[in-house]
Specification:
Blueprint lengths: L9 E4 L4 E6 L19 E8 L5 E10 L19 E5 L8 E5 L5 H6 L12 H4 L11 E5 L2 E5 L23
Antiparallel strand pairs: 1-2, 3-4, 4-6, 5-6, 7-8
Length: about 180
Protein backbone atom coordinates (compact mmCIF):
# COMPACT_ATOMS: atom_id res chain seq x y z
CA UNK A 1 0.00 0.00 0.00
CA UNK A 2 1.25 3.40 -0.98
CA UNK A 3 0.49 6.90 0.19
CA UNK A 4 0.87 10.13 -1.80
CA UNK A 5 4.39 10.64 -0.40
CA UNK A 6 5.41 7.17 -1.63
CA UNK A 7 4.49 7.78 -5.27
CA UNK A 8 7.42 9.95 -6.35
CA UNK A 9 5.31 12.81 -7.73
CA UNK A 10 2.69 10.54 -9.29
CA UNK A 11 -0.92 10.46 -8.11
CA UNK A 12 -1.80 7.92 -5.43
CA UNK A 13 -5.24 6.48 -6.14
CA UNK A 14 -7.10 7.02 -2.84
CA UNK A 15 -9.42 4.05 -3.32
CA UNK A 16 -6.65 1.48 -3.95
CA UNK A 17 -3.63 3.21 -2.39
CA UNK A 18 -1.59 2.45 -5.49
CA UNK A 19 0.50 4.81 -7.59
CA UNK A 20 -0.86 5.86 -10.99
CA UNK A 21 1.08 6.98 -14.08
CA UNK A 22 -0.31 10.53 -13.85
CA UNK A 23 1.97 13.26 -12.50
CA UNK A 24 0.38 14.95 -9.50
CA UNK A 25 -1.51 18.19 -10.35
CA UNK A 26 -0.57 17.97 -14.06
CA UNK A 27 -4.02 18.25 -15.66
CA UNK A 28 -5.74 21.54 -16.46
CA UNK A 29 -9.38 22.64 -16.42
CA UNK A 30 -11.57 20.53 -18.70
CA UNK A 31 -9.06 17.70 -19.07
CA UNK A 32 -10.35 14.19 -18.40
CA UNK A 33 -9.31 12.95 -14.95
CA UNK A 34 -9.58 10.02 -12.57
CA UNK A 35 -8.67 11.66 -9.23
CA UNK A 36 -8.66 15.10 -7.61
CA UNK A 37 -4.85 15.03 -7.38
CA UNK A 38 -4.67 14.67 -11.19
CA UNK A 39 -5.94 18.26 -11.45
CA UNK A 40 -4.15 21.55 -10.83
CA UNK A 41 -4.17 22.91 -7.28
CA UNK A 42 -7.60 24.49 -6.54
CA UNK A 43 -9.35 22.23 -9.05
CA UNK A 44 -11.41 19.09 -8.47
CA UNK A 45 -12.09 16.06 -10.63
CA UNK A 46 -15.87 15.97 -10.99
CA UNK A 47 -18.42 14.05 -13.01
CA UNK A 48 -19.86 16.17 -15.82
CA UNK A 49 -23.42 15.64 -16.99
CA UNK A 50 -25.22 17.27 -19.88
CA UNK A 51 -28.92 17.29 -20.72
CA UNK A 52 -29.13 17.89 -24.48
CA UNK A 53 -30.72 15.94 -26.12
CA UNK A 54 -31.35 13.93 -22.93
CA UNK A 55 -29.63 13.78 -19.53
CA UNK A 56 -26.45 11.73 -19.37
CA UNK A 57 -22.93 11.54 -18.00
CA UNK A 58 -20.15 12.84 -20.25
CA UNK A 59 -17.21 11.81 -18.02
CA UNK A 60 -14.92 13.11 -15.26
CA UNK A 61 -13.12 16.42 -15.80
CA UNK A 62 -11.00 18.90 -13.84
CA UNK A 63 -12.95 22.03 -12.87
CA UNK A 64 -11.95 25.10 -10.88
CA UNK A 65 -13.02 25.57 -7.29
CA UNK A 66 -15.08 28.76 -7.16
CA UNK A 67 -12.77 30.05 -4.40
CA UNK A 68 -9.53 29.44 -6.36
CA UNK A 69 -7.41 32.60 -6.07
CA UNK A 70 -5.68 32.04 -9.43
CA UNK A 71 -8.88 30.94 -11.18
CA UNK A 72 -12.39 32.29 -10.60
CA UNK A 73 -11.36 34.04 -7.35
CA UNK A 74 -14.81 33.74 -5.80
CA UNK A 75 -17.06 34.23 -8.81
CA UNK A 76 -18.32 32.10 -11.67
CA UNK A 77 -19.26 34.06 -14.79
CA UNK A 78 -17.68 37.27 -16.02
CA UNK A 79 -13.96 36.92 -15.47
CA UNK A 80 -14.01 33.12 -15.38
CA UNK A 81 -15.31 32.58 -18.92
CA UNK A 82 -16.36 30.10 -20.17
CA UNK A 83 -16.80 28.51 -16.73
CA UNK A 84 -19.93 30.56 -16.01
CA UNK A 85 -22.10 28.08 -14.11
CA UNK A 86 -21.74 27.66 -10.36
CA UNK A 87 -22.39 24.07 -9.29
CA UNK A 88 -22.21 22.30 -5.93
CA UNK A 89 -20.96 18.76 -6.51
CA UNK A 90 -19.07 15.90 -4.92
CA UNK A 91 -15.61 15.23 -6.33
CA UNK A 92 -14.75 11.76 -7.63
CA UNK A 93 -12.58 11.25 -4.53
CA UNK A 94 -15.39 12.03 -2.11
CA UNK A 95 -14.93 15.72 -1.32
CA UNK A 96 -18.54 16.62 -0.58
CA UNK A 97 -20.37 19.79 -1.57
CA UNK A 98 -17.50 21.50 -3.37
CA UNK A 99 -18.49 24.59 -5.33
CA UNK A 100 -16.98 24.60 -8.82
CA UNK A 101 -17.28 26.81 -11.87
CA UNK A 102 -18.55 24.65 -14.70
CA UNK A 103 -19.61 25.08 -18.30
CA UNK A 104 -23.23 26.09 -18.76
CA UNK A 105 -24.08 25.44 -22.41
CA UNK A 106 -21.52 22.85 -23.53
CA UNK A 107 -19.27 20.09 -22.21
CA UNK A 108 -15.50 19.84 -21.85
CA UNK A 109 -15.21 17.82 -25.11
CA UNK A 110 -17.29 20.53 -26.84
CA UNK A 111 -15.02 23.25 -25.46
CA UNK A 112 -11.88 21.32 -26.43
CA UNK A 113 -13.15 21.07 -30.04
CA UNK A 114 -13.94 24.82 -30.21
CA UNK A 115 -12.18 26.53 -33.14
CA UNK A 116 -10.81 23.24 -34.50
CA UNK A 117 -11.61 21.66 -37.85
CA UNK A 118 -11.98 17.94 -37.13
CA UNK A 119 -12.69 15.50 -39.92
CA UNK A 120 -16.45 15.20 -40.22
CA UNK A 121 -17.09 18.93 -39.66
CA UNK A 122 -18.01 19.77 -43.24
CA UNK A 123 -21.41 21.50 -43.03
CA UNK A 124 -24.10 22.55 -40.52
CA UNK A 125 -25.84 19.16 -40.44
CA UNK A 126 -26.45 17.05 -37.34
CA UNK A 127 -23.83 14.52 -38.48
CA UNK A 128 -21.22 17.31 -38.81
CA UNK A 129 -22.21 18.70 -35.40
CA UNK A 130 -21.44 15.27 -33.91
CA UNK A 131 -17.75 15.79 -34.82
CA UNK A 132 -17.61 18.81 -32.48
CA UNK A 133 -18.19 17.46 -28.99
CA UNK A 134 -19.01 14.49 -26.79
CA UNK A 135 -20.62 11.55 -28.53
CA UNK A 136 -24.39 11.49 -28.09
CA UNK A 137 -24.71 15.11 -26.92
CA UNK A 138 -25.61 18.37 -28.67
CA UNK A 139 -22.69 20.27 -27.14
CA UNK A 140 -20.82 21.41 -30.25
CA UNK A 141 -21.78 22.84 -33.61
CA UNK A 142 -20.05 22.79 -36.98
CA UNK A 143 -20.21 26.24 -38.60
CA UNK A 144 -18.41 28.05 -41.39
CA UNK A 145 -15.74 30.62 -40.49
CA UNK A 146 -14.73 32.35 -43.74
CA UNK A 147 -13.89 29.44 -46.07
CA UNK A 148 -13.23 26.91 -43.29
CA UNK A 149 -15.68 24.73 -41.36
CA UNK A 150 -14.90 24.80 -37.62
CA UNK A 151 -16.44 23.74 -34.34
CA UNK A 152 -18.12 26.27 -32.12
CA UNK A 153 -20.26 25.92 -29.02
CA UNK A 154 -23.79 27.00 -28.12
CA UNK A 155 -24.18 29.91 -25.71
CA UNK A 156 -26.81 31.89 -23.82
CA UNK A 157 -24.53 34.84 -22.99
CA UNK A 158 -20.95 35.85 -23.79
CA UNK A 159 -19.97 34.50 -20.34
CA UNK A 160 -20.44 31.02 -21.90
CA UNK A 161 -17.72 31.82 -24.48
CA UNK A 162 -13.97 32.03 -24.07
CA UNK A 163 -12.66 35.42 -22.97
CA UNK A 164 -12.67 37.82 -25.91
CA UNK A 165 -15.36 35.90 -27.82
CA UNK A 166 -19.04 36.84 -27.93
CA UNK A 167 -22.34 35.02 -28.07
CA UNK A 168 -23.75 35.81 -31.52
CA UNK A 169 -27.37 36.34 -32.57
CA UNK A 170 -27.39 32.64 -33.60
CA UNK A 171 -26.58 31.69 -29.96
CA UNK A 172 -23.11 30.37 -30.83
CA UNK A 173 -19.70 31.60 -29.64
CA UNK A 174 -17.92 33.72 -32.22
CA UNK A 175 -14.73 32.57 -33.88
Amino acid sequence: MSGQDDCGGKVCAPDTHTCTDTTEHSLFACEACDHDADCQVNQYCVQMSFSNPSPGVVGNFCLWSKAAPLGPNGTCGSGSNPYSAERTVDSVDGENDVVVCSLDSTTCPGLKAYQTSPSGCVDASASSNAACGAEGFNDGLCRQDAATWKCTIPCDTSDDCKTGKTCTAEDICSF
